[in-house]
């Protein structure tokens, strides 16, 4: 351990997404290659001697206790736990959650050390993994509110790879097996004979960790919500969601030293007639078993919506991934301006 292939794979994956800024401590981690990376893991992160590093991924993460603070993290999967190496700006950004983070090291702030906070979720504490729509994100749930983390990969490939690696590592855990189901085939397990529709697709791993995937009702609920926002102008039957993607809205901050731009996380939904931006709650739904009350906000909150027919042009940047798109709409305040003019002009 580790094999040459694994070393090469982990080195390739150790790249911070170019559009996101991280602290000096995480930049140091991103600069490590091959053996240096494995040694760093065993010297600074691993909790027991015989655990193996199996997968590395850079992703934005959200915690259940701090649902409004999205922070960049280096996610390390070993044979014992999932480690989230966090940007130290997160601790400063969320001072009121002092009980959530142990601050023994706060006196080191003025020294030459660059500290990172490491959040550990042991595989033995893992209860379920919820995969988001179109594999854009996934939520890992442990036994309490402190142990719920969402990884916003914004990339189906990264999500799929992590889930595969996690399943492989969970297979190594020694847990008592679940009792075998009695004479149940796939269709009686997941299908409803009346409607022919799939129920919530739930895969129970041999380690008894549940992997829960979205069912078709979730898309139906989303289509209904989108139709509501369109003021009922469209027939729900003909409404198709063509694209669902987690993106960032770029807000230019003028007046700063270099007109910087801040990135606001948004869910972009494209239908055959409209383009919508939603603020989505990626961490609170579906409700964890111990939740005593519903979350303070809805899963989807409309931030902006425009008709495709008002789209004037789309500007594309030539930089590499992630691609920047600028949608330019005709700025007509009253969408039914022409119709109203006609009515006023030609009488009652």
Helix count equals 8
Q: Distance between the terminal alpha carbons, to the nearest Å? A: 83 Å
pLDDT < 50 stretches: 192-198, 337-343
The main β sheet shows up as: 9 strands, mixed
- The portion of residues forming beta strands comes to 25-35%
Mean pLDDT: 81
Brief summary of the model shown:
This protein has 348 residues and is of the alpha+beta class. It is 22% helix and 30% strand. A hairpin with a 2-residue loop joins strand 2 (66-78) and strand 3.
Topology readout:
Elements: H1 4-13, H2 24-30, H3 34-45, E1 53-63, E2 66-78, E3 81-86, H4 89-93, E4 117-122, E5 128-131, E6 138-141, E7 148-152, H5 156-170, H6 186-190, E8 201-204, E9 210-213, H7 216-229, E10 241-252, E11 261-271, E12 274-280, E13 300-307, E14 311-316, E15 325-329, H8 337-345
Parallel strand pairs: 5-9
Antiparallel strand pairs: 1-2, 1-7, 2-3, 3-4, 5-6, 6-7, 8-9, 10-11, 11-12, 12-13, 14-15
Organism: Eudyptula minor (Little blue penguin)
Domain Nischarin C-terminal PH: 241-347
Main location: cytoplasm
What does this structure look like?
By secondary structure, the protein is an alpha+beta fold. Helix content is 22%, strand content 30%. It has 8 helices and 15 strands. The strands form 3 sheets. A 9-stranded mixed beta sheet has the order 4-3-2-1-7-6-5-9-8. A 4-stranded antiparallel beta sheet has the order 10-11-12-13. Strands 14-15 form a two-stranded antiparallel ribbon. α1 packs across α3 (34-45). Residues 192-198 and 337-343 have low confidence and may be disordered.
């Amino acid at each position: 351990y580790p094999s040459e292939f694994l070393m090469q794979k982990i080195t390739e994956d150790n790249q911070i997404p170019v559009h996101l800024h991280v602290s000096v401590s995480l930049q140091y981690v991103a600069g490590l290659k091959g053996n240096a990376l494995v040694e760093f893991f065993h010297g600074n992160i691993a909790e027991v001697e015989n655990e193996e590093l199996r997968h590395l991924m850079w992703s934005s993460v959200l915690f259940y206790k701090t649902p409004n603070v999205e922070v960049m993290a280096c996610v390390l999967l070993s044979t014992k736990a999932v480690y989230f190496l966090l940007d130290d700006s997160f601790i400063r950004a969320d001072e009121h959650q002092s009980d959530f983070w142990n601050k023994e090291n706060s006196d080191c702030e003025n020294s030459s050390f660059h500290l990172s906070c490491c959040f550990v979720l042991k595989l033995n504490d893992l209860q379920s993994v919820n995969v988001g729509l179109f594999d854009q994100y996934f939520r890992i749930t442990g036994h309490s509110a402190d142990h719920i983390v969402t990884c916003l990969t914004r990339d189906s490939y990264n999500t799929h790879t992590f889930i595969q690696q996690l399943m492989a590592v969970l297979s190594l855990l020694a847990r008592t097996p679940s009792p075998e189901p009695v004479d149940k085939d796939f269709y009686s397990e997941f299908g409803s004979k009346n409607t022919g529709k799939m129920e919530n697709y739930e895969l129970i791993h041999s380690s008894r960790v549940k992997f829960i995937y979205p069912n078709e009702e979730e898309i139906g609920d989303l289509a209904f919500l989108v139709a509501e926002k369109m003021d009922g102008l469209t027939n729900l039957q003909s409404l198709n969601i063509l694209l669902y993607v987690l993106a960032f809205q770029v807000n230019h901050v003028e007046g700063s030293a270099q007109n910087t731009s801040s990135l606001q996380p948004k869910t972009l939904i494209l239908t055959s007639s409209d383009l919508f931006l939603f603020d989505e709650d990626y961490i609170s739904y579906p409700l964890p078993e111990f939740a005593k009350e519903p979350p303070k906000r809805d899963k989807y909150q409309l931030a902006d919506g425009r008709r495709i027919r008002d789209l004037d042009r789309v500007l594309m940047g030539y930089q590499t991934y992630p691609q920047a798109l600028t949608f330019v709409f005709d700025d007509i305040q009253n969408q039914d301006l022409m119709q109203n003019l006609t009515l006023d002009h030609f009488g009652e």
